[in-house]
């Protein structure tokens, strides 16, 4: 059992329509070289997850993600400083994030936001950095990718105060139906991770059901949040295919309908080239 818990789940059958893993961490999954990245995305593509957005949370991973996005045409990047790392976020860090975020294959500013679960950065430092990232996303005209952990009210308040960018993505959406309605009404996009497949996530299930087409994405947040029934095992971008099928069942829709919605929404929000094949 111990060995099994360290193994990847099986690659699932290919989805009828190819989708985008809207948020993953290829470096944290163990990718170092271009060959590593290609192997991971090859596995994902076998499951119908044809493109991925690999996300940074510090400067080292931001540099790596930006470089990795040039190694394989199926890989794009998002860069920012994670809220738990904002205790020291000075002009040098801001300048580097801005330089990297401006790169062509960086499709979002993120993940940024607020995390009140971990006590790594003071709330005021997190909020100041969040406001700066909001401004950066607007200046670059790129989507803002939100990390929101136990900070719903302050995240929504600051987005409103700062006049949120045109596209806002709530990565690994963790709210209930009430929070989802507030986000949907504001025009934000909710990205559902493997947590939506967990049996005890009743509020998240309700949120997933009410979210209209065009305002939801699917992600893995790999190597974390592996979907049921493989919870606790390592995750990779191919795991998004499990979540797509579960989301379809939750919503009472066909898998191909949910997959098509996920694909077209990712293409619109991230401004990716349109792919119409399965």
TrEMBL record:
Binding site for a divalent metal cation 2: 147, 171
Entries under SUPFAM superfamilies matching the protein: Metallo-dependent hydrolases (SSF51556)
Cross-referenced InterPro entries: DNase_TatD-rel_CS (IPR018228), Metal_Hydrolase (IPR032466), TatD-like (IPR001130), TatD/YcfH-like (IPR015991)
Positions contributing to a divalent metal cation 1 binding: 23, 25, 111, 221
Any one annotated GO CC term: cytosol
Record Gene3D superfamilies: Metal-dependent hydrolases
Record's keyword terms, sorted: Hydrolase, Metal-binding
Molecular function GO labels: DNA nuclease activity; hydrolase activity, acting on ester bonds; metal ion binding
Record protein name field: TatD family deoxyribonuclease
Originating species: Amycolatopsis eburnea
């Amino acid at each position: 059992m111990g060995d099994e818990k360290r193994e990847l789940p099986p690659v699932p059958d290919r989805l009828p329509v190819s989708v985008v893993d809207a948020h993953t961490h290829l470096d944290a999954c163990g990718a170092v070289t271009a060959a590593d990245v290609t192997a991971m995305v090859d596995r994902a593509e076998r499951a119908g997850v044809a493109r991925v957005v690999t996300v940074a949370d510090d400067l080292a991973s931001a540099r790596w993600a930006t470089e990795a996005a040039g190694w394989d045409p199926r890989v794009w990047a998002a860069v920012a400083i994670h809220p738990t790392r904002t205790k020291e976020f000075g002009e040098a860090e801001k300048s580097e994030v801005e330089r990297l975020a401006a790169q062509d294959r960086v499709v979002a500013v993120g993940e940024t936001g607020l995390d009140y679960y971990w006590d790594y950065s003071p709330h005021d430092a997190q909020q100041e950095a969040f406001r700066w990232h909001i401004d950066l996303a607007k200046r670059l005209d790129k989507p803002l990718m939100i990390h929101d952990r136990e900070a719903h009210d302050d995240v929504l308040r600051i987005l409103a105060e700062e006049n949120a960018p045109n596209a806002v993505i709530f990565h690994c959406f963790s709210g209930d139906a009430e929070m989802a309605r507030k986000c949907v009404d504001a025009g934000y996009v909710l990205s559902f991770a493997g947590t939506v497949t967990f049996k005890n996530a009743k509020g998240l299930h309700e949120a997933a059901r009410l979210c209209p087409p065009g305002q939801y994405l699917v992600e893995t947040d790999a190597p974390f949040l592996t979907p049921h029934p493989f919870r606790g095992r390592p995750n990779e971008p191919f795991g998004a295919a499990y979540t797509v099928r579960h989301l379809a069942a939750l919503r009472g829709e066909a898998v191909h309908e949910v997959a098509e919605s996920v694909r077209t929404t990712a293409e619109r929000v991230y401004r990716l080239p349109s792919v119409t094949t399965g």
